[in-house]
C-alpha cells in the first residue's frame, strides 16, 4: 500500500433538491488495489461514482488525485485524469465489432481515414495484456458475444486509455457462475497490473473474493472503509443494513432513525461460505 | 510523495486464437452468417435475378439493349434518394418528406433556370442549398426539439407538397430546356469514355483492396485469403464490363440517329456510391452514425455529439433528395406538381429496405440502396412492359416492399435467436 491514495474524497456532500444523497463522505482508493464499494439500494453508491466520473458535480467537499486537489466537472475531466467507468449496462454498440467498440468516440485516424490496422493491433495488445483469450475474432460483432465476453470488452475498453482508476458498476450482476469467475479474475488482474480498481457490488462473495478494502455506505454516509482481511462477512452485511456492527460503523444517533437497523435479525447469509478472505 | 504512475505491462502480442482463414472457411463463415440471419443484400440479388427471368419469359423485349439503358435512367432518381435515406434509416429514423423534398428542389431549379433565366449551375447550386436547408430544419426539429422524425417528416411531406405547388404557380408544368440539365438523364457518354471510366473504377477498386490486404498482412493481422479479394475484384470487373458493353451497343431503331453509350447519370451514381460508402465505412463520422444507430446512450457516453449526428443525417438525406430531384427534372424535362410525389418516396424507402438496410437502425450500406433501386426499377419497368394498369403496379410494388420489410424483421428475429444481435 502506498503512502498517498491515488484518489481521495473528503467530505463530499450531494443533494438533489431537498434530498441529501451523500453526507460528508470520505473515500480513498489506492493503486494496485481493488476497493469494493458496497451498500444497500439507495445508499448512494451510484451517486458517489457519478460525482467521481464527472456526471454530477458534488455540492461540497474535496477531491484529491495523486495528492493534488482537482475539480471534476464533466466526464472529459475524469477521462483526462485517467478515470474510466464501466457502467452496469455496458454501453456497447451491438452492431459494431470489438475493435470498433473499444475505440468508439476516440478512433485513431491517419488523415481523414480511420486507421483500422493500428486500432486492431492496439486492441489485440490490450486484450492480450489482460490475458483475455476467449474471443474468437476481434472483428466479431459484440452482439454475438456472451455476457462475460461483453463485460470483458467493456473493461478492456476502459483500460485501453492508460487509465489509472477503473470503476466497475456491478460487473457481475447479470452473469452466470463461470462468467462471474472469469470477470472477477480480470478485475484482480487489473489491480495486479497497478491500476486502482473500484468495484461496486451487491454480492458479498464477489467482494470478499477480490477486494483489498471494503467501503460501506449506509443512507448516504460512509460507515467505514476497512481492509477486507479485518472484517467478516456478517459484519459487512450488518454495516450495510444497520449502519453499525459492534464497535464499527456510525456512532450513536446519527443515521439510525428509521428503525431499519435494530440488531441482529440473524444477519442474512451467515453461513459465509465465501471464505475467500485470503487477501 | 505521489506514487509512480502505474503502467500496464503488456506482454508480447498474442492475437487471440488466430486461425488463418482459407477460401473454404470464408465461404463457411458466410453461409453461417446467412443462416444466422445476417443476410445482407442477398434477397435483393436473388430478387433481381428472379424478376429478370420472369419478365424476360413474359416479355422478351425486356432484355433488349434499349430497355436495359432505360432501367438506369428510370431508377436513377429513386436510387439517389434511397442512398440518402440509408443514413436516416441507420439511425432508426425515417424521412417521409424525402420525395417531396426532391420535388421542392426540382421546383427551385425549374423556377430559376426557366422562369428567372439563371444559368444552370446557379440553379443547381440553389437546388442543392435548398436540400441542405430542408435537412437542417428537419434535423433541428427532430434532434433539438425532440419531435419524432415520423411526425416531423409527415408534416413536411404535406407542407412540401404545397411549396411545390406554390413554386410552380399552381398546376402548370414548368419545362426545363437547358441543354446541360437535360443531358444528365437523357444523354449518353461516348463509348470510349464509358470504357475508360470503367477501367479506372475497377483498377482503383483493385488497388485499394490489394493495398489493404497487403498492409494488414504486413502488420500480422488476420486477413481474408487473397483469392477472395481477387474473386471480388473479378466479379466487379465482369459485371461492370458487361453492363458497359451492353450500354455501348447501338440501341437506336432509327438509322439516322445513333443512340449508344452509358447514360451520364450512371457515373454520377457510381461516384456518389463510392464517396458515401467511403464516408460511412472509412471515416470517424460514419462510425459514429452506426454507433448512434446501434446504441444511442453508448454513443453519448463515448463522447459522440449525438444531436449533431442526428441533424447531419437529415441534411445528407435532403441533399441527396435534391440531387434526385435534379435528375428527375432532367429526365422529365419538366417539373410539375407531382415531381417527387406519388410513389417516389415509397420506392426510395423500398429500395433501401429491399437492399438490406434495416428499418430498426444500425444496419445498412449505401450499396443496398443501389441494389434495391435496381429491383424497384425492374419491377416498375417490367410492369409497364406487361401493360398492366398502374393500379396493379402499385399493388405489386406495395407487396414487394412489405415482403422486404418482413424479410428484415424475420432475419432480425432469427439473428436474435441465434445470438447475432
From TrEMBL, chain A:
PROSITE patterns with a match to the protein in the record: ABC_TRANSPORTER_2 (PS50893)
Pfam families from the UniProt entry: ABC_tran (PF00005)
Biased composition (Gly residues): 248-262
CDD domains listed in its UniProt record: ABC_Carb_Monos_I (cd03216)
Residue span(s) of domain ABC transporter: 7-244
Molecular-function annotations in GO: ATP binding
Segments of skewed composition (Polar residues): 264-279
Keyword tags: ATP-binding, Nucleotide-binding
InterPro entries, per database record: AAA+_ATPase, ABC_carbohydrate_import_ATPase, ABC_transporter-like_ATP-bd, P-loop_NTPase
Region (Disordered): 248-279
PANTHER family: CARBOHYDRATE TRANSPORT ATP-BINDING PROTEIN MG119-RELATED, SUGAR ABC TRANSPORTER ATP-BINDING PROTEIN
Protein name, as recorded: ABC transporter ATP-binding protein
Upper classification of the organism: Bacteria, Bacillati, Actinomycetota, Actinomycetes, Micromonosporales
From TrEMBL, chain B:
Transport as UniProt keyword: yes
Record flagged with keyword Secreted: no
Location in the cell: Cell membrane
Keywords tagged on the record: Cell inner membrane, Cell membrane, Membrane, Sugar transport, Transmembrane, Transmembrane helix, Transport
Membrane spanning residue stretches: 39-59, 71-91, 120-143, 150-172, 192-211, 218-247, 259-280, 311-332, 344-362, 369-386, 392-411
Primary residence: membrane
UniProt topology in membrane: Multi-pass membrane protein
Free-text function comment from the UniProt entry: Part of the binding-protein-dependent transport system for D-xylose. Probably responsible for the translocation of the substrate across the membrane.
Protein name: Xylose transport system permease protein XylH
Lineage: Bacteria, Bacillati, Actinomycetota, Actinomycetes, Micromonosporales
